[in-house]
Amino acid sequence: MSATLLDGKAFAATLRSKVSEHVSGLKETHGITPGLAVVLVGEDPASEVYVRNKARQTVETGMQSFEHRLPAETSEADLLVLIDQLNTDPAVHGILVQLPLPGHMNADLVINAIEPAKDVDGFHISNVGLLGTGQKAMVPCTPLGCLMLLRDHFGSLSGLNAVVVGRSNIVGKPMAQLLLGDSCTVTIAHSRTKGIEALCRSADILVAAVGRPEMIKGDWIKSGATVIDVGINRIDAPEKALREDGTVKTRLVGDVDFDSAVQIAGAITPVPGGVGPMTIACLLANTVTACCRANGLPEPQGLTA
Ligand SMILES: NC(=O)C1=CN([C@@H]2O[C@H](COP(=O)(O)OP(=O)(O)OC[C@H]3O[C@@H](n4cnc5c(N)ncnc54)[C@H](OP(=O)(O)O)[C@@H]3O)[C@@H](O)[C@H]2O)C=CC1
Ligand SMILES: Nc1nc(=O)c2c([nH]1)NC[C@@H]1CN(c3ccc(C(=O)N[C@@H](CCC(=O)O)C(=O)O)cc3)C=[N+]21
């Protein structure tokens, strides 16, 4: 038996077309164009790809994209000045500061300098608190994308056993909050968890956000379980022909060993084409939501949790 593929790429395309419709409506009825500012400090190649894709899709859905690329040696004070300008710029409805930041910066301080209403990543302490207490917040894009895929697959998540592997502030913890909000019984596993394989085997929903290529094997998965693979890992692919310059090509893999997992799971997200595209689509959706809230307009339905 082979698992059903949860096609994040297709789902994200549908979500983007809903975003486009709302953006057209905002323009026609109110003369407002939502705007998203992305700040990239330094030159991480993976971040470059993400930021480029995001800027392209922002423009494709009819929104304004503002890109700010700063050198790695930028001072924290200068970054805070830029954030302050974006906070007060009425054309900017969403602000994303790409993580990780260079080591000389305090990421918490930088994130908490973003106006919470414009924090489309949902990382500001105010949004984290709102999410944790079940109040209206900006919801982090990656966990939101995972939740949308799960709701689409199951209908109701109520009473299901969910195991989230990973406890980061950007994926694991907010994912656990969202699953709890949908009445799952949630366990969070991490690098100190004892008996992690057996714990994973107890999950109806297994979310992997670890950053370790193909760590979770098929025999860690309960037969028929739903597996959400958040991991994005680039590994060497010696099976591919060498590049012209003689270097080894690479490929993307998740935190789940897809080939063994697909035999056991009931449903699984692929990498690429699973959670990644949903993250960007949810970022666009959050920007439209932020724009509507900023202008006192009714929120679009179906774009948020
Ligand atoms: N698809 C997408 O849109 C996105 C994908 N990602 C990807 O998701 C993955 C996770 O990202 P992120 O949350 O930022 O990563 P972090 O490195 O911040 O967190 C990783 C978590 O995994 C835990 N962990 C590490 N090793 C083990 C282990 N051997 N067993 C159990 N738990 C372990 C860590 O535990 P501890 O806390 O104990 O150290 C930690 O909580 C990465 O592959 C990243 O590239 C991230 C963001 C968006
Ligand atoms: N402030 C901040 N917010 C983030 O949301 C954030 C961040 N910083 N830093 C880095 C991580 C990572 N991340 C990804 C988003 C999309 C894909 C994505 O679209 N992946 C494609 C493949 C892309 C490729 O081919 O490289 C896929 O999975 O199909 C991947 C990774 C967001 N992150």
From TrEMBL:
Pathway: One-carbon metabolism; tetrahydrofolate interconversion. GO terms for molecular function: methenyltetrahydrofolate cyclohydrolase activity; methylenetetrahydrofolate dehydrogenase (NADP+) activity. Its EC number is 1.5.1.5, 3.5.4.9. It holds the Pfam family THF_DHG_CYH_C. GO terms for cellular component: cytosol. Residues 6-121 form the Tetrahydrofolate dehydrogenase/cyclohydrolase catalytic domain. Catalyzes the oxidation of 5,10-methylenetetrahydrofolate to 5,10-methenyltetrahydrofolate and then the hydrolysis of 5,10-methenyltetrahydrofolate to 10-formyltetrahydrofolate. This is Bifunctional protein FolD. It comes from Donghicola eburneus. Keywords: Amino-acid biosynthesis, Histidine biosynthesis, Hydrolase, Methionine biosynthesis, Multifunctional enzyme, NADP, One-carbon metabolism, Oxidoreductase, Purine biosynthesis.
